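re the bet — no i am not wrong, look at it urself. input seq straight from the record:
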Amino acid sequence: MQEQTGITTGITLFANDGGMFTFGADYFLNPALSLTANVGSDNYYAFGAKLYHARKAKPTNFAPFIGLQYGKHHMTSFWEVPVGIQYVTNFGLQFSLQVSLLEYPNINYQNAHAGFSVGWRF
């Protein structure tokens, strides 16, 4: 991936708690690993990393990923495992679909959400 930095906006729907608008940024350290930061309109923020399927053997615009993020939602800490797919056009437009499992260890609670985002890589 030539464009190392990306910004996104999207919508996320929680299984138990409604939805929110999200804004994010990421930076690829190499073609397979990115650092991510996200904020949401519902007192949500998370940061972590995503591991993308290596595209060295066959270059493609599609890239499945899995990640691990830490954050807070309504001032309660959580760990998040996002799984999804990203598509980047040849001119930098980016689309992403993901499903995430969230574990709130301090209150013994689990949740899930699905999200769609669109952004730009530069």
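see?? The CA atoms of residues 34 and 105 lie 25 Å apart. told u. also Residues 5-121 form a domain with the Porin fold (CATH 2.40.160.20). so pay up
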